[in-house]
Amino acid sequence: MRLLPSAAAVAVMALTTPAFAAGQAAAPAPAPQAAPAPAQKSDSPEEVAFEAKGEAFGERMEAMAEEMQAAATQADKAKAKTDLDAIQARNQADADTFADEFLAFVVSQGAPADQMGAAAQQIKAYPAMIRAKIEEAVAAAPAGAAPAQPQ
Fold first, then answer.
1. How far is residue 120's CA from residue 42's CA, in Å, rounded to a whole number?
2. Cβ neighbours of residue 61 closer than 8 Å, sequence gap 6 or more
3. What are the pLDDT digits (tens) for 66-111?
């Protein structure tokens, strides 16, 4: 089962988006690989479907980070906070749902519920963690200069 690496990839992707690269130009998207690495055993249709869900969730978290970056860098700080609150709230339900689906799936595949419960809690925290990283980057930017916008 490749699920744990997929979950880790979601976390890494969400927390390393260009939105977090304060003061740096966004890195170009990596080139697609020619072919996926062969699995040691064939993945079940359920694993393939859940992996696709994980990739889609990661893409949504990246889009949320880009939206948060744009909101955080606006001049009106009161509006920035209101916008960030709305973006985080709108995406929290998605993170909660994915985390619950992740936990149910991995436990059904034989993973230990206690360890996977901790991973699910971390997934639920993504919107808040991403927001905190963006706010930290904006605060660290030199006065008068906003962090680079994601491309």
1. 25
2. 10, 13, 14, 91, 95, 126, 127, 130
3. 999 999 999 999 999 999 999 999 999 999 999 999 999 999 999 9
